[in-house]
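Exercise (ungraded).
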Amino acid sequence: MGRFFCVLRRDLHLALRQGMDSFMVVMFFVIAVVLFPFGVGPEPNTLARIAAGVIWVAALLSSMLSLERLFLGDYEDGSLELLVLSPATLETLVLAKIAAHWLTTGLPLIVAAPFLAILLNMDGEGFVTLVAALALGTPTLSLLGAVGAALVLGSRRGGVLLSLLILPLFIPILIFGVSAVDAAVGGYPVKPQFMILGGFLALALPLCPWAAAAGLRQSLE
Amino acid sequence: MGRFFCVLRRDLHLALRQGMDSFMVVMFFVIAVVLFPFGVGPEPNTLARIAAGVIWVAALLSSMLSLERLFLGDYEDGSLELLVLSPATLETLVLAKIAAHWLTTGLPLIVAAPFLAILLNMDGEGFVTLVAALALGTPTLSLLGAVGAALVLGSRRGGVLLSLLILPLFIPILIFGVSAVDAAVGGYPVKPQFMILGGFLALALPLCPWAAAAGLRQSLE
Amino acid sequence: MAMIEKYANPTVFLGITRPLVPWLGGATVATLSAGLYLALFASPADYQQGESVRIMYVHVPAAWMAMMCYTSMAIASGVGLIWKHPLAHTAARATAPVGAAFTLLALVTGSLWGKPMWGTWWVWDARLTSVLILFFLYIGYMALNNAFDNAQRGANAAAVLALVGFVNVPIIKFSVEWWNTLHQPASVMRMDGPTIHASMLWPLGLMALGYTLFYFWVLIIRIDADVTAGKIRALRQRRAHS
Amino acid sequence: MFSGADLSCIRGEREVFRHLDFGLDAGGMLVLTGPNGSGKSTLLRLMAGLLSAEQGAMTWNGVATSDDPEAHNARLHYVGHLDAIKPALDVTENLLFWASMHGGNADAASRVSNALTALDIGFLSDTPAQYLSAGQRRRVALARILASPARIWLLDEPTTVLDKHAMATLEQIIADHRAAGGMVVVSTHTAIAGDGQAVLDLAPFAAHAQMPTGEAA
Amino acid sequence: MFSGADLSCIRGEREVFRHLDFGLDAGGMLVLTGPNGSGKSTLLRLMAGLLSAEQGAMTWNGVATSDDPEAHNARLHYVGHLDAIKPALDVTENLLFWASMHGGNADAASRVSNALTALDIGFLSDTPAQYLSAGQRRRVALARILASPARIWLLDEPTTVLDKHAMATLEQIIADHRAAGGMVVVSTHTAIAGDGQAVLDLAPFAAHAQMPTGEAA
Ligand code: HEM
Ligand SMILES: Nc1ncnc2c1ncn2[C@@H]1O[C@H](COP(=O)(O)OP(=O)(O)OP(=O)(O)O)[C@@H](O)[C@H]1O
Ligand SMILES: Nc1ncnc2c1ncn2[C@@H]1O[C@H](COP(=O)(O)OP(=O)(O)OP(=O)(O)O)[C@@H](O)[C@H]1O
Ligand SMILES: [Mg+2]
Ligand SMILES: [Mg+2]
């Protein structure tokens, strides 16, 4: 456990210090959403109509964006070798890196989402559901993405490959995430959507770190 | 001129070979746009209403995304030093890198745009204008972005900083780009918007390579 | 020693300017009080715009200062880049927050004025957009300046940005003429002389003078602080490596 | 205690070496030599467990190291061509992380500062790693192995870019480590002082001539 | 022909050296020595024009090099700690680019293949750079300077990770270059053979003691 927190702390520290990836992601998320009124025009009804979709799509895109570099920095400067050689199960360390990724990209996204929802004129009913759905959905994005990121390490075309690998996996989360918000705005029960999102998370949590660790070991051969 | 094409060819070659950045960008663009029907719902009128905005915003975001790494690879592996030391004006080489960036990210975007416009149900009148506006606007995005990318080299928060620096500069292009398409769809003349977009390009073409070269020289101190 | 020599010039500069600080402060307060009194109480209400015209006395000089500060910042940056004079970078760095504050003031007062005049807080009109971009440029300049562990690097990079961003200033100035927009065209700062009434010109002039005095006052204080911080940094670094 | 028998290794579909044996006792030092591309780095990565052998096995006190890779990891330090230094962190931050990853949190800070002192870079402790000269970076990478204890040191050309003084320091550090019962495997193209060192030249094990013609066996 | 007078250089607000002079005639060789962090790389970057001196000037045949930086670039080759090799391209592609950037397109391909042969890595010509061993990468970086002609060579610790054979090759290459009237400035911690070489120790020029205590002047 000590090593889990060691890696977690260091990745958080790095993210804060160099900001390259994670802050970029939140900025990207905010900017992506804020650009829409410029593009679509400021008409409140149209904006409200597309608010949930815009926010979820922006969340997906920014998550995908940051995932490419999840292991790349460590791979390129030799840190990954040393992590593999540290006397801890690699799965634990991978989970720590995923946790750090979520804390620096997923969490700020969730915090920013309600403000963006106001900006896009979203119906008040949807706010809580939006935050809850993001809280359930974004960890799954990080987990799934980590597998993709580990698999494409060292390959040519890392980026394209990554998006091809993980985007199909992301779409179900998008669909149920948006439909939860729409249901809440329309006054329908949201439990079914939440059950499904929770199910995805429960499945990904044990499976993904294992698969990602296997991918990382391959990449050092 | 020989060296201009030398750098251009090598950057194109690298982009094709490793694909990390540029293909990622087109994929990102397509995916960003394609995700919208999933997020917003497939209702044709809503989609048509927001089509121009969505495409332009996606183009902006994907351009911004790729710009961060425009000089970063060369900076990190020492190629930038050698480029600065090559017996050619640095401005020429910078322009070549920008041209390569545009050819690998801007051009495919333009090619992909009409298909995405069909997908989003855009009014047929808008197609030609959309392509023409993108053709005039995206080079300016690459040019402006190169300045930002050069300035943030070696800084602590490269990514965020970059978006902070260049997004404000991108907004006018977004506004006039969308408004050109909207004007075409509405049956109004599009010449004023095109004049402005052309003006931006004419201004950026001599200025930006110079500023980016100055930024690069600084980064090696 | 070289670092000390480098700061010798700023030291001379501060030797001359430091005594001016209290005088500038006093003059700023006096001019602004007089200007505000004339603007808010002594000048007539507009026959069309009513009392809301008084926003003008805050808004218009703030907008001028926003552009003036940026121009000074760009010139100082150019001098810093070409002649490598450390004081020029310091002056540019000291100008940025003042300029950003004036820009914000122009934006806020403009919005407040826009609501009664145009019926909306904000439109994506060329002048308004370009002023917003000016504000972002100031923010970007400050962020870039602080983004490097090496202060000199930050100053150089930010200076390039300041020069590039200068393109925006003529766009702000002439946007109303190039594109016909909701916003007022120039009526004071014109080639052929001002076109507004003297009863409005006086308070406007006083406010502009007050803002300018304020700028120079803050500028000297900030340069002083910056030079001192630089000296401390140099000393500390020398100790770390001896 | 640490030995390997009949090792072969394939990289990128090409056999690098075959039928290679090595053995190291407590306090032992094995120097790997051979021309560029002969497989020194490959062998060190194999010893570290980063690569797996095509054939043959390595043992620690008679037990195959692949039986318990984590225990093997705990007893070794590896310094490769890449130095795993994050430019954004300062020197101490960089080392603290690895010190607590490998040797636990307890007194990690004092272990790190001792390691820095041992390599004469105490004065760099709060310099951002970005500003280090090449030799300073290399010393930081070497300080990492002093900041937490391990029996086996696997060092891949550790002396490159070091100045003469630092080289002497490194030789002393290796001697101290061996005196305390540690083992060292080091690859090098120059001479590294050390009593009773065994030398393993990799050239003869190359599966097919792939080295510069000038020096190939 | 190539000389500098009274040079001082500041990096990161700290003076690295001051009042430094150097001079090189046709066929001359200048060896830079000094402990880690003493400013060898800094001086080489200054000579290359990548850094500008705080004070002092460099001249080529009496003309300040800063008057025409492009002409200066055309007559020099710089090999730094970083090797500017793109892993995605193969060895020939990597070199072809630099060969035609510096020496023009004409017969670039044959120049590159001669350079590869000279450094005994002809057999790697179509290997992706990603798969090179450390010494092979370094040889590729050195092949770059053979692939287009330049009067001045600025080499920053070129011998690290080279095996003995490659080191001898490099010494021969340097001798040939000097025989043809070229000049070489090279920093190193080890000995590099060469007749009539001048040695410049940087330690005494350090503005304030900033080196590891062990070797500081
Ligand atoms: C946020 C919104 C606004 C912004 C960013 C803004 C910006 C500016 C700027 C930059 C100037 C200086 C122009 C120059 O020197 O040529 C200016 C001047 C002026 N503005 Fe605004 N403005 C805003 C809203 C308004 C509104 C709502 C009104 C009133 C209808 C207004 C009336 C004026 C007037 C009368 C001048 C003086 C023009 C002259 O005499 O030169 N502005 N504004
Ligand atoms: N980018 C930089 N910014 C600030 N300081 C730097 C930078 N690079 C190096 N330095 C500092 O400048 C000094 C000289 O560094 P330089 O790289 O020239 O040393 P060197 O003699 O080449 O050492 P080595 O033998 O380790 O390569 C060092 O103290 C180093 O910390
Ligand atoms: N990742 C890789 N994939 C495929 N082949 C590789 C890889 N890395 C190295 N090789 C090849 O394996 C061989 C052995 O390389 P290795 O790095 O072990 O050599 P080395 O003895 O350490 O050389 P040097 O002295 O140059 O460091 C070389 O021929 C090299 O081309
Ligand atoms: Mg090796
Ligand atoms: Mg060096």
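Further reading is listed at the end of the chapter. For now, observe: The helical segments of chain D are 40-48, 69-74, 91-103, 108-118, 134-146, 164-179. The first strand of chain D starts at residue 2 and ends at 11.
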